[in-house]
User: Fold these one by one.
Assistant:
Number 1:
Amino acid sequence: MYFGQANQDKFVLNILKEKRDGYFLEIGSNHPIHINNTYLLEKYYGWKGIMVEYESGYLASYKEHRPNSIHLINDARTIDYKNVFETNNMPFSLDYLQIDLEANNGSTIQTLEKLDNEIFDTYKFATITFEHDIYHTNFDNTRIKSRHIFLKRGYICVFEDISDSGNPYEDWYVHPELVDMNYVNYLIEKNKTKYVNHPITGKTINWKDIQYN
């Protein structure tokens, strides 16, 4: 059973071959279990990480259900990520980055730009799921700007414009130095025919149609 809204946790575990004891940075954690991309990783695979969430009402449930992670209740755009990583001795190669914020107010792209400026020189992530929400907003060119940043940093987009009910909202990446690229390229090729036309993005792939090995 996967908990991610679009099975992001399945993508991460599949790419990383069911890795145990990994590390994540989850920005926009929301509920600690329901529609959460890292609960399965922490609860059943021994992962730990940093959870960033604006709503303070989740803190008590984080402490109860996510005891192995660090909980930062703050605006993701104001956090000193370099200091947080150094203080908590995070490894230079992490396993998963989630950015799931509000694209329509700029917080999504502003947070990514902050990470790019503060930690991307030093830290790499094996897998990334990035929500751009192009289906309902193009605020500050979030989708295009994010792709430029990830490309500049050497990331490979495995699945782009992932959708649910025809609404493309997310891109999924890997870093080629940290994953099995033979398998990644196999996945990309295997799923090429799963894309369908879309008036905004040109094409989209429904997460339910993605096929793994």
Number 2:
Amino acid sequence: MSLDEDRLSALALKVWQYKQGEVVSLMVHLGDRLGLYKAMDGAGPFTAEDLAARTGLKARWVLEWLRGQAAAGLIDTGDGLTFEMGPEAGKVLADDRDSIWFAAGAFGGGVAPPEVVDRLADAFSTGIGLSYDDLGPSAAHSVERMLEPWTRLALVPVVLAALGDVVGRLSDGAAVADVGCGSGVAVTTMAQAFPLSRFDGYDPSHHAIARARARADQLGLTNVSFSPVPASELPGDGRYDLVVTLDCLHDMPDPVGAARAIRASIDDEGVWLIKEIRSSARWADQIRNPVLALLYGTSVSCCMSSALSEPGGAGLGTLGLPPEETGGLCRRAGFTRFTTHDFDDPGNLYYEVRP
């Protein structure tokens, strides 16, 4: 059966926009619950710092939330730094006393479990987010379901095949680490494709590692291992020929420290493959993304939250590693060669990094 590529793309976008609505509904609930809408109503132009001072909340959390609200078309901004709530938005989102149009009260937190919603609301005040384990076992399952098709179908034949001699080295037998391996989909996919190589998965989420071990056992793989530890506990002896971090570096409380640990663990002829969300440092570029509100909402509820789950966390957020930032981070960690790959993945870019 032939496929209409334009129709396929449009349908996929429509489905992701339904997911976007799910996430935005949680953000609307938080805005109502935390008094953010009331504090914005009639205030004129303001920054995240202004709104944080007015509400007693943490500016970093407020900024990510504001950008998501602007991406959803609920408030206005021209640069992602200064915001304003229009009078109509005030009637719909803030005025629960005199407006028959008030709607924010209809949102109860979306599909997030009540205990997670409560802790997210608290995080706006404390500044300390939730780790992926704090989100519960269902989070590991959801991430696995979201990323598994791409990993199984594209990682080996498309991405690894583009990295020079990597496939040849893996075929002959190499040492590989997946840092932030989640439920082990990438590890098991590579382990099946390259039985002579050895694969180690690292992730601080005990829920995810339990799923990864069960997956490997089910597949009967003997060339894999999984450890519930962060990147800082990687072996520093240069043993790995390939290290991968797939859509997770921005989630880490200390991404620079993680990059340095990866540099110490990788051979001088090795390769670090990074997969990161497509993003830009310029708001004018960001706002063109039709699912930008989904990304900012996911950042508040998952990615930035994880990156702020430890005191002093970097809090980069889902969109915090555009190409120039990723390259700078790699150079600070001691890498010297940085190549960007675009595989027509609408959501992600890939970076081939070498010492």
Number 3:
Amino acid sequence: MVVQSVEHTRGRLSWDTVGVGASTLCLIHCVLTPIALAFAPVLSEFLPGDTLVHRVVIVLVVAIGLFAFIPGYRKHRRWIVFLPMLAGLWAIGLGAFGDSFMGPWTEKCITILGSTLIITAHGLNRTFCKYCDACSSGGDDGRCGE
């Protein structure tokens, strides 16, 4: 039973790591694309910065978030992890779908804020899961957040 718990934990932490990586790539994309465009106007058509890319990425971020957060929440039962996640998803969604009423710099700033919030949420999820692992190794059969 302990081995199964450890394997389950490794799988969940893996999804949190993927989530942090995806959000970090989003953040790097948001920061570097305007710089790359300024220095390479000829290549601007080939850089991943159009609306379709942003809308596909938001779907991937939501899917990865679900894979990471639901098992983590079931373990630690702390709702606080959903606050930065939902705020981050809202900000990234606004950046991806609100381009018709925002300027490019506003869109970038909102998307960077969203990525940062999602990275924070994944970090909280991992931290709470680690605390629960330490709690359960002490002999307590209950869930940490209960």
